[in-house]
Specification:
Belongs to the peroxisomal membrane protein PXMP2/4 family. Keywords: Membrane, Transmembrane, Transmembrane helix. Its main location: membrane. It is found in: Membrane. The protein folds into 2 domains: 187 residues, no CATH class; 30 residues. It starts with a helix and ends with a helix. Helix 3 runs antiparallel to helix 4 and helix 4 packs antiparallel against helix 5. It has 7 helices and no strands. Helix content is 83%, strand content 0%. The chain is mainly alpha-helical. The chain is globular and about 50 Å long.
């Protein structure tokens, strides 16, 4: 029992330190780990779809995502700390102000820093980074409006301040998979824009389902009527 109590105390002290004294470090590391994890999931999904045959897993791509996530961790940390100080309370009006501030200030900033960081680590010049950003930002920002306002409503209403960035990072896994998809898709689907490639995949999946159903129907008819 003494060992169990000692272990529980150690866990509690660790949690208290990570979410109070060392909260900045926690938020920074989690940002890098989760952005990197989003790319891992996306690469696994790409391979499942049949891309990258005969090629090894792109560890440098995941490393770049991890580093950019680390770099965005401190701004995320200080941003939400600032929001809580400026907009106090959990009434609907205050939450709306936080969400709108997040969408109109934080969302463009983190999109810009994402493409800048990834582009420079890929060896691109500023002109190439700017062209990529202009091409892909509308898709990123549109999806941002779909996922983040409801997420942030829950965040600002119910999530304690110390766990706010962790909660956002957890939802960010889905967001990071999308970012990895938008960022890297044209590398192996050059004939499509990012969104066109997405809908192309949906269309192919639909066609595969139709062909599978038609094949099943033909087999059934052949068994019933013995049609050669």
């Amino acid at each position: 029992m003494r060992n169990i109590r000692h272990f529980v105390k150690m866990v509690k002290n660790f949690k208290d330190n990570m979410f109070t004294k060392h909260l900045l470090i926690t938020n920074t590391v989690s940002g890098g780990v989760l952005l990197g994890s989003g790319d891992v999931i996306q690469q696994v999904f790409e391979r499942y779809q049949g891309y990258h045959k005969g090629r090894r897993y792109d560890t440098m791509r995941t490393w770049r995502m991890f580093v950019v996530g680390l770099l965005q961790g401190p701004p995320h940390h200080y941003w939400y700390t600032w929001l809580d100080k400026v907009f106090r309370g959990k009434d609907l009006k205050t939450i709306a102000k936080k969400i709108l501030s997040d969408q109109f200030i934080a969302a463009p900033f983190f999109a810009i820093t994402f493409f800048l960081g990834m582009g420079y680590m890929e060896g691109k010049d500023f002109g190439a980074i700017l062209r990529e950003f202009n091409k892909k930002f509308p898709y990123v920002y549109l999806f941002d409006w779909c996922i983040w306002p409801p997420t942030q409503y829950i965040n600002f209403l119910w999530v304690p301040g110390a766990y706010r960035v962790i909660y956002v990072n957890a939802v960010t896994v889905c967001w990071d998979v999308f970012l990895s998809y938008i960022k890297h898709r044209e590398q192996f689907e050059k004939d499509f824009t990012p969104m066109e490639a997405f809908f192309h995949d949906v269309e192919l999946h639909h066609e595969d389902n139709i062909q599978e159903v038609e094949g099943t129907q033909k087999k059934a008819l052949k068994n019933v009527y013995q049609v050669p």
